[in-house]
Amino acid sequence: MKELLERKQGFHRTILIADDEFIEREMLGAMLCDEYDLIYAEDGSTALDMIQERAGMIALVLLDLHMPKLDGYAVLKAIRSDSEMRRIPVIVLTAETEAEVRSLHLGAADFISKPYNMPDVVKARVGHAIELAENSVIIHETERDSLTSLFKRDFFFEYGKMLDIQNRHMPMDAIVLDINRFRIVNELYGKQFGDLILKRLGNSLHELVRYTGGLACRSGSNTFYLYLPHSNDISGDLVRYTTKINEYLDDRKITVRIGVYSDDGSPIDMEHRFDRAELACRKLRGNYSTEYVLYNAELHSRELHSERLINDIDKALSEKQFKVYYQPKYNITGEKPLLVSAEALVRWVHPEFGMIPPGEFISLFENNGLIQLLDRYVWSEAAAQIRKWSDKYGVTLPVSVNVSRVDIFDPQLSEILSSIASACGLSPHTLLLEITESAYTDDSQQIIDTVSALRSKGFRIEMDDFGCGYSSLNMLTELPLDALKLDMNFIKNIEKDHKAYRLVGIMIEIARMLEVPVIAEGVETKGQMELLHKIGCDIIQGYYFSKPLPPDEFEKLFEKTD
Asked: In CATH, what class is 151-295?
């Protein structure tokens, strides 16, 4: 690219004149020497050697077709078969009309007829061929991903739309490929290894497109799109595709997941096809036993339901369809469990669908950024409830609220939370902020800076889902925390699985090292509670004590403690 820019700014380009006739070479040289640097070859073999040695600097080849050792046709074929040399434009020198046509079919950019009795025409054709070639390279650099040479996303969709217009009756399949756990691959083996994997996958997709037709692009850091002519045996083809891709990757540690929208005749555009393939691909996250999923009626129904929920959120917030429930948390370090705080858990009572489980809408809103609206609603409701209980019972009970990954990157986060607490006349420490452990890996320094700012204003931070496998022990020493909340999946097995019990014990020891209390959620049995008490867990939350309760039912817990 730098070479091309330099040429555009007036630097002399280099032209190779390959002709076995001395006088012919000199004539062309005389016409072009004022504007170009010239090098010469007397036969085809020498010309090809010079092109191979100086492919990066030669701007144009003027090629005679009849030369000793290697004729011009053979040189032209060699140039066009090499990925580096083929970008160099070739103008054929000939007096034969039939040779002109054959040369153009072999990839020649233009031809100049012998004898050279019109210097201005020669100069014009040379300049035009060079300009077209340079512009073509610049366009290629712009539209292609530098690592894999696949199309970039924007150009991919533009060319795909053109393909659809030109072939209106050709059904097309949309395929999305993701590399499983690619972030972990980069962390474990380094970026250089990660780039090698991306190049190998890119090469396999180049070959697949050459074989099937269609287009391919690199859409994200480890996401690739394929737009292929429809296959009536898409399942069988996918098995063949994945087999070939795995051969290219040549590493059992690396696997891909594939989402497919198979053309069913529906009149939807290319972008919506890929939306559906993306949806199918997302279904495979965390599933390493299945390599591909086809978009189907079930997924379509789920997509429509999700769109409905997204469209309904504004109305749901204004009508307070979201209800905040509270699950109590008990300190078990003393002789008798003591109510010390609660967690705010949101429920959606939809006028048409009834009670919608959080699993249906939380992740949906996280993916499109709407979770911020819901989080602020829950924060405000929880703060107002703390105030009501404080006024009614004279007890200020801290409440944990969730802070999503999206919230973390809001520069106004600490001001928003402070404003909510202040509006209800609360101290910041009454809102306990739960941040899931996995969020700390998105941008650890950003998280640390945000959490430090929140703590400096008096908020307390709980790491939620601790132990689910994202953070390193070394990173824990850098994080400003006030409590660790164990992932509930560890708790459910501690009565029957000694390894799970020991693992929970180790995590509690880590918390002791960090000098922060441990909260265990998902505690359902007396046996679990007694084991956690035995190994030093501080606070317990779960159905053993209480399910999440609406505010009026939660108030009965205050009355029991009076």
From this structure: alpha beta
CB of 77 closer than 8 Å to CB of 114? no
Rounded Cα–Cα distance for residues 211 and 191 (Å): 30
| Residues in the chain, pLDDT under 70 | 1-11, 137-141, 252, 286-290, 437-444, 467-475, 561-562
Fold match, 151-295 / 326-554: no
* Alpha-carbon distances of 430 from 180, 192, 215, 397, 424, rounded to whole Å: 40, 47, 55, 7, 11
Q: Report whether the peptide linkage leading into residue 328 is cis, meaning its omega lies within 30 degrees of zero.
A: no
Residue 438 has what pLDDT? Answer: 67
Per-residue model confidence (pLDDT) at position 561: 63
Q: Whose CA is closest to 228, among 277, 296, 171, 268?
A: 171
As a whole number of angstroms, the distance between CA 50 and CA 58 comes to: 9
Rg (C-alpha) for the chain, rounded Å, is 34
345: CB partners within 8 A, 6+ apart: 324, 325, 326, 327, 358, 548
Q: Are 94 and 114 in contact (CB under 8 A)?
A: yes
Structure tokens at 206: 């180049």
Distances from the Cα of 354 to the Cα of 113, 321, 351, angstroms: 81, 10, 6
List of residues 6+ apart from 80 with CB closer than 8 A:
86, 106, 107
Distance CA 442, CA 282 (A): 18
Query: Packing angle between helix 444-456 and helix 413-423, nearest 10 degrees?
Result: 30
CATH topology of domain 326-554: TIM Barrel (3.20.20)
The alpha carbon dihedral of 67, 69, 74, 80 has a sign of: negative
Structure-block tokens of residue 298: 């079930």
Residue 148: which region, alpha, beta or left (left: phi > 0; alpha: psi -120 to 50)?
alpha
Residue 2's nearest CA partner among 57, 48, 39 is 57
How far apart, in Å, are the Cα atoms of 441 and each of 192, 262, 514, 557? 20, 35, 19, 38
SS3 content of the chain, % helix, strand, coil (to 5): 50, 20, 30
Q: How many CB atoms lie within 10 A of CB 493?
A: 15
* CATH entry 3.40.50.2300 includes domain 2-143: yes
Q: Which residue has the tokens 């504004």?
A: 314
Q: Would you state the pLDDT for residue 387?
A: 96
Count Cα atoms within 13 angstroms, Cβ side, for 190. 3
Rounded-to-integer distance, Cα 386 and Cα 392, Å: 10
Residue ranges of domains in the chain: 2-143, 151-295, 326-554
